[in-house]
């Protein structure tokens, strides 16, 4: 064989070998990419399905919490999750699931996830989290402003518009109605957009700090953190939901004590606008101001005032911090409420004039009472307790033990409750005129009169008024005021509103 022919044969063999190696490498890489892609999608399915299961659980049981991370196995992978109550949306991950969602996620979370996710998605997601997800993608997958999302979100067979699945058999129809690319449907960024939705306070009066401003209902914000793993690939999701309870906090309740007249505290009365449970346990950074009045406030003796302003708690002190004491206030639109029904929102909230009185008078409303003589009351109070005194009369040395709504009022707006000496009341107390609180109230106090009968001393001895949005909402609910907690989706009794969904 000639030298030229030999060179051609050897060259052909070498070229063929190179081509074969390239083909093998491509096939190997394609297989590896396919496996990784499969695991990535599978891990994402596991992650978001676990979120859906938790949403369903919360819809059925608003008290469901997982404070210490738990791990469950399904779909050939694992999901680790926590369910915690928080004061506001922070946009980040959960420390209990590991910094940066675990070592497998790393600081950069892989080149495939790019740099646009960055600082705007909170430190726990790393600085570089996603070229493949599209430039400037927000990762707020539940963009409530997006009409396409709302269309899917409101489907009756969807828990959150993310999956349709059979809870019993875990069959998943992934991305139903969402298409292949989720980038466009979920907003450009999640920084300023979600802060506007949730705000630091509920108007200039700092009412409802840290709570979703779109609703006047009492809400609990729950943070769901899930990290899923399948075949060495990790995916994570952080979801914030608002779990409403029955009832609501009326817009008129602007403070722990709201008055239309000069007010003075003496003795050792404690007025605390920080939020509390119905048992008096502090709920941090979720309260309101201590005092709100259209006139003046004087803090004397050893009385202490606390509260919350711009999601910052102020411990009761003397003098109270000016951020949580609002004086010389104007009501804004309309006029100061002059009846118990208007305090609850009036006709627009289902309380036209006379509703509360009629509710208390109806024997079908078990626990509620209507009396013109406080001596005829049965204790403990519950439901709606309506004490309609004759003009100029006083309920002196009052036992207020119980819960719900306690109303002391008449058509002349001069009914007086004086020397609240015994019992702990949990709920909303509305009265024409209140003199000397000497016991404990968990909820709020609203005073209707602009001209109190005996000066302006709201308390001159021992006692406390602790703000509790839950106790107020429970009281309003006892009167039939349900707010926006009507069922929408999920297995259970209440709607679970998604505030933000980050991946």
Cα-atom radius of gyration = 30 Å
**How much helicity do the residues have?**
10-25%
Using DSSP, what is the number of strands? 29
Shape: elongated
Low-confidence stretches: 98-217, 485-494
| Number of distinct helices | 6
Mean pLDDT: 76
Structural class: alpha/beta
What proportion strand? 25-35%
Question: Would you write up a description of this structure?
Answer:
The protein is of the alpha/beta class. The protein folds into 2 domains: 33-246 and 487-502, no CATH class; 255-478, no CATH class. Helix content is 18%, strand content 30%. It has helices spanning 3-60, 147-153, 192-198, 340-343, 355-361, 469-478, and strands at 66-74, 77-86, 113-114, 130-131, 163-166, 171-174, 219-230, 233-244, 255-259, 263-265, 270-272, 275-276, 282-283, 289-293, 297-299, 304-309, 312-317, 325-326, 369-371, 384-387, 394-399, 402-408, 416-422, 424-431, 433-437, 440-447, 457-459, 464-467, 497-502. Strands 9, 11, 14, 16, 17, 18, 19, 20, 22, 24, 26 and 28 form a 12-stranded mixed beta sheet that branches. It has a 5-stranded antiparallel beta sheet with strand order 1-2-7-8-29. It has a 3-stranded parallel beta sheet with strand order 15-10-27, with no helix packed on it. A hairpin with a 4-residue loop joins strand 5 (163-166) and strand 6 (171-174). The longest helix has 58 residues, at 3-60. The radius of gyration is 30 Å and the shape is elongated. The N and C termini lie far apart (66 Å).
């Amino acid at each position: 064989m000639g030298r030229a022919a030999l060179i051609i044969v050897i060259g052909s063999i070498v070229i063929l070998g190179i081509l074969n190696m390239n083909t093998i490498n491509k096939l190997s890489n394609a297989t590896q990419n396919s496996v990784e892609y499969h695991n990535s999608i599978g891990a994402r399915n596991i992650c978001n399905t676990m979120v859906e299961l938790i949403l369903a659980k919360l819809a059925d049981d608003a008290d469901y919490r997982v404070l210490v991370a738990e791990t469950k196995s399904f779909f050939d992978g694992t999901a680790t999750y926590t369910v915690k109550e928080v004061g506001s949306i922070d946009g980040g991950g959960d420390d209990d699931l590991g910094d940066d969602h675990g070592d497998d996620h790393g600081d950069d979370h892989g080149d495939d996830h790019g740099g646009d996710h960055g600082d705007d998605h909170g430190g726990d997601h790393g600085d570089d989290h996603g070229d493949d997800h599209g430039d400037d993608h927000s990762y707020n997958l539940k963009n409530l402003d997006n009409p396409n999302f709302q269309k899917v979100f409101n489907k009756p067979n969807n828990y959150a518009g993310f999956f349709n699945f059979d809870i019993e058999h875990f069959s998943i129809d992934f991305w139903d109605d969402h298409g292949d690319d989720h980038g466009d449907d979920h907003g450009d960024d999640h920084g300023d957009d979600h802060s506007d939705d949730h705000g630091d306070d509920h108007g200039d009066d700092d009412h409802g700090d840290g709570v979703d401003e779109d609703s006047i209902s009492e809400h609990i914000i729950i943070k769901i953190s899930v990290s899923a793993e399948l075949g060495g690939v990790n995916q994570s999701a952080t979801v914030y939901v608002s779990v409403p309870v029955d009832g609501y906090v009326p817009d008129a309740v602007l403070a722990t004590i709201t008055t239309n007249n000069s007010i003075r505290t003496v003795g050792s009365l404690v007025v605390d606008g920080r939020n509390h449970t119905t048992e008096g346990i502090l709920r941090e950074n979720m309260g309101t101001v201590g005092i709100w009045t259209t006139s003046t406030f004087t803090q004397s003796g050893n009385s202490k005032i606390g509260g919350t302003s711009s999601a910052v708690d102020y411990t009761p002190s003397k003098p109270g911090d000016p951020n949580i004491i609002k004086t010389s206030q104007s009501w804004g639109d309309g006029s100061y409420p002059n009846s118990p029904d208007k305090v609850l929102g009036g006709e627009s909230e289902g309380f036209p004039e006379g509703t509360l009185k009629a509710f208390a008078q109806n024997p079908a409303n078990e626990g509620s009472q209507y009396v013109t003589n406080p001596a005829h009351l049965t204790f403990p109070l519950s439901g709606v307790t309506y004490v309609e005194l004759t003009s100029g009369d006083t309920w002196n040395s009052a036992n207020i033990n119980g819960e719900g709504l306690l109303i002391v009022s008449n058509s002349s707006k001069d009914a007086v409750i004086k020397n609240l000496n015994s019992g702990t009341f949990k709920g909303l107390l509305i009265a024409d005129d209140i003199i000397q609180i000497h016991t404990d109230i968990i909820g709020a106090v609203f005073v209707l009169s602009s001209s109190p009968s005996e000066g302006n001393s709201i308390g001159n001895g021992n006692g406390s008024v602790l703000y509790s949005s839950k106790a107020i909402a429970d009281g309003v609910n006892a009167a039939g005021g349900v707010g926006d907690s009507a069922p929408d989706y999920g297995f259970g009794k209440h709607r679970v509103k998604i505030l933000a969904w980050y991946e």
